Fold this sequence. Notes:
The radius of gyration is 22 Å and the shape is globular. It has a two-stranded parallel sheet. It contains 15 helices and two strands. By secondary structure, it is mostly helical.
Amino acid sequence: MDRPIIDVTSLIETQRVGRFAVSLLGWTFLCMLLDGFDFAAISFVVPALAREWHVPVGSFGSVFGFGVAGLMVGSIVFGWVGDRIGRRTTIILGCWLFGGFTLASVWAPSVHALLWLRFLAGVGLYAAVPNAIVLVSEFAPRRLRATWVVLMFTGFTVGAVLAGVGGATLIPNFGWQAMFVAGGVLPFVVSICLWFALPDSVRFLTLREHRWGELRKVIRRMLPGYQIPADARFVIAEGTREANFTPRLLFAGDLLFITPLLWLFYIFNSAAVFFMQSWMPVLIHGIGLSETNAALTTSVYSLGGTIGGLVTGQIIDRIGLSAVAVLPFAGAVVGTLVGVPMPVIVLEVLIFGLGFLVVGAQFACTAIAPVFYPTSYRANAEGWALAVAKIGSIAGPMIGGVLLGLHLPGYQLFYFAAIPLVLSAAFAFALGRMARGHLGEAALAAEQV
Length: 449
């Protein structure tokens, strides 16, 4: 007698948004929040460190650059690891890594030592990020996938907001070390909770028959009351591609055009995002605000990014990919207005809008990348995309350090950020056209399964 077959894809599509989904999004959101806090904290620590260590602020450009280089290494290495040992375990491992090296930064004696600690913390940060993105995307029904991913990833920008608040409150009262203590201890606490509360991907578990016992438990959590036959076999109803990953799979068939466009979009938008995220407190201070007000204004930038990310998810799910192109282009226009003499409240509105548009486009990157790749190497593909994006992410902060060394007015630096934003808009537009032209909307929807 044939064994009953259960298609986990249909189970995912029929699930209701309930306790399981809220728990999944809540815990991954919290993980992203800690990632965002840790990543942004260094931006607020740098002015205090520059004074204490008697070094120019621009010399920290290499610290930002090496930190992002760590993100690149983490994206590639732990994308591969996540496809081997599971999304859940890799996310927890990432929390341990970035928490430990962030805490160790409290005792950094020099820029050189801090540089390597930020590199290693970056490796841990991007052990967690791509695997959390993939985990959520593989649990989400197709109609809600972009929205779920964006909701989860808003934790990153909320963490950046909290880093700004921490920079304005913790540093004046407890010193710069307090930022690293908070960013180092909290991930260990959360990782313990993740071990018990976070499930592994049902799609990932389906591909590994020896873990079907665990799969059954996750399905029962996802669909309480669903009866699973004792002798059931589990399958994924999606187009088949080679299971053993090699980078050439990223360019197979229609991906030959999609992947380069996606990577270019990542690279140029990331250059602008990381340039502004790394140097925003310094740039705002250079315009004339105090360091405390500059930190709070930078939080407004991250808050705008959070709301922009939420809207981006709705745009992708309802309209399509081409609509994303308007975000970085409009961000370039808004950025050129910063620095014009204006009341502080108007400046903050502009900074909010800048975050909404530029960081919102970055959210689009994380939401659309999993669309094009199958389960068998989706985390690898996400990891490679995030890794390639670090070409821009490294270049942005380091170029910013060079420009600061030239003592240019802060507002002029926003002009330089407009260049990669315009380019990323062009590639986002081409990506949307390519998705329609080569796949069609119906085929694109099938790829999302």
